[in-house]
Amino acid sequence: MDKIAEEQEPQPGPGPGQREDSPSRFATESSPLLLQRDPTPSHHAANGSARPAKWTQAATLRAPRLARDAVRALPAVLLGTLLNILDGVSYGMIIFPAAGVFADLGPMGVSMFFVSAVVAQLTYSCGGSGFAGANGSMMIEVVPFFHILATSIARELGEDHPREIIATTLVAFAFSSVLTGLTFFLLGALRLGILIGFFPRHILVGCIGGVGVFLIITGLTVSTRMPDDDFALSLPVLRHLFLNAALWAPALALAVLLRVVTHRFRHQLVFPLYFIAIPAVFYVVVAAARLDLPALRRSGWLFDVAASREPWWQFYTYYDPRATRLAPLVSTLPTQLALLFFNILHPPLNVPALAVSLDIDVDTNKELVGHGYSNLLAGFLGTVPNYLVYVNTLLFYRVRGDTRVSGFLLAGATVVLLLIGTGPLAYIPVMVVSALIFVLGIDLVKEAVWDTRHRVSRFEYITIISIMVVMTVWDFVMGVLFGIVVSCFFFVLQNSQRRSIRSLHTGETVMSTVRRPSAHRAYIREVSKQTTILRMQGFLFFGTIAHVEETIRDLVDGPRWARTPVRFLVLDFTLVAGVDMSAAEAFMRIQRLLHAKQIVLVLCGFTTESPVGRSLRNVGLLQESGVEAFSTLNDALEWMENAYLRTWFSAQKEERDPIALPGRQDVDLGFHHSLSSSPRRSQLADIGNRTIARDHSIDSRPTQQEPYDTLVKAFASYGDVDKELFSKLVPYLERLPVPEGHVLFQQGDEPDGLYIIEAGILRATYKFTDFTLIEESMVPGTLAGELSALSGETRNATVVVERQAILWRLSTENLQRLEVENPHLASSFTKLVLKAAKTDYDILLASLAARQ
């Protein structure tokens, strides 16, 4: 009894935030009309009686909902059907050229349009699209390419082979659908839809403008029954258009009037009702004036009735493998590729725009797969390519066509139109079709020429106009290729004008993050005027490298060289995306120039296996003498500062204890034997005597004791380190020998004190975010962990012993005891520590800023 009661309970209503008619009530998104099984197992399953009963119950409960959805979708289906009629008449009638063997194939094009629309509509409604009410049909922009395919095949086979021409042309159209579908499917399946977004949008806009001009010309030829091939900007054609203005002028006037009306009234039904009213008014006038329909047809006001008596499937009778010729098909491959290029650009642009307009989250790659299925099926059914129509879908949603049911109903209505056949076309006024074509053409030209006038750069606007001109004067394939070439030219021109040098510094403004004794730092700050740093950016190619080369030549040949000669030239590639062969060879020329002036070229910001590193290695730059390479700018600065220090100390005659230097230890510049033989060397000697030599006067004293010597190294530049006063600090300090690799403390640890380095090297790592790391070396005569010890906050870095060290630690307990027992000494010591810390952190912040 419980089971029977459970089966008789009504189905739950929609969840919170879910409409009663939401598509999620169906079993699956891709198969909305399939009934959902109840996952609850039944004890009646053994005899098979319960499950059919449950399915019957579910079907009974779902039937009213489907009926409500169908009734609710009727306005949307009516609007979608009207739009398909208008699109089918305007697009389908011009699929084939209106000349030669194709002159009477307009109705056949309409049938092919409706077959493609039905295929697309069913594919999207069955789950091929994330938009439940997606509308699909043929793409109007490919019509010019169809004309090129048809005319090229006719020209190659000759007009005296009509059956072969039509059969081969139909195969070419179907092949374009298969090629488009396969490309869409692969792009979506491999999730490469984002790649299409990299194509320049202004080329597509120019092509759209060219299609607009083509449609306006087509409107003129359809109205006047002029063959497409006969249209030209010549005096006879202009005379013909003037004499037949009564045929095309009303259609053009109706198109302009529609745009005036829609500018004032923006309701979605204005467009279809307007074109329904035109034939109604036309036949009212015909009836009132008692005009003869055959006479109107002969004079070009109605379409030829003989061509419209064919059934919808008539185009299949033209498919004939024996009449199809392979050679013309192969010769159309360039046009097929251009058509494919135009086809695949639209969905990745339309789908995101439609998702924003409807506030629906969809997967572009899934939409591409759906487009692949619909176009493959269209190709196998022998019809033209299709896609999701942005405007039709948007209007469909606005009149509540937002369910799969509405999509299936629209597909059914389109099938009815297909079955009715092309007979009614004989009674459609030509001006209706011409006005539709004019409207589309004017809209596309306006979109390309008027709407973009303030939205694109001057070069892009010139490209758009140029593409339209080439497409109109020559052909569409040439226009696409011309647009790509012009865009590449303007891209090179524009990027060559961009600054490839982001900034230019000297070593005195950009220093490494190594903590050094104050005297060493003062020496480095002055001698680093001989270091010039160029931070480059972007992609270095033949258009941008000229500026870099010219700047470097000015540095080593111009007046600046006379004022401040350069010892090291640093080229920072951190922000460089790549280097082409022309730029790499330019760096070889730069290296030869620098080598002649005994300037060391220092390269940094890349690894040898990176794209930049491979480009420079391929031309042999990294193997040249006088070239040094580092992975980061800080490593390069550290190496050069060590070179300056080692140069000064190596030139001293008196014996000194060797200094500890971090980083690479292979610095031998060959100019430390004499510091007076050139202006650059004399400058090093003069600066060293004013900074380091003065600080090392303590070495001449007979005996000194630690930690006083280390305290002098650390604080002598910031104030008087009185021996009598600071000797009282010794009982509070603890001497710690620490081995290499020992972790002194980690970031986030509670502070245990501050450390003064007597010997060895420490390395601190600051981790600001998951991706931002800064490393800082600490040499003898510097501090570690001072700010966290004074503030009581957690450690802001991880410090590791890089080279066996001797440290003096002032623990937090001893620091507190010092503040109580000797406040004057504690205050003096704290001030010196803060002064040293400020200098260290200023340099650290400068290093962080230099990365920007």
From TrEMBL:
Location in or out of the cell: Membrane
CDD domains on file: CAP_ED, STAS_SulP_like_sulfate_transporter
Superkingdom of the organism of origin: Eukaryota
Transmembrane segments: 73-99, 105-124, 131-153, 165-190, 202-221, 241-261, 273-291, 376-397, 409-442, 462-493
Keyword annotations from UniProtKB, A to Z: Membrane, Transmembrane, Transmembrane helix
Organism: Gloeophyllum trabeum (strain ATCC 11539 / FP-39264 / Madison 617) (Brown rot fungus)
Keyword Membrane tagged: yes
Membrane topology: Multi-pass membrane protein
Name under which the protein is recorded: Sulfate anion transporter
Domain Cyclic nucleotide-binding: 717-818
Major localisation: membrane
Region (Disordered): 1-55
Gene3D superfamilies: Jelly Rolls, STAS domain
GO cellular component: membrane
Family annotation (SUPFAM superfamilies): cAMP-binding domain-like (SSF51206), SpoIIaa-like (SSF52091)
Pfam assignment, any one: STAS
STAS domain mapped to chain residues: 533-640
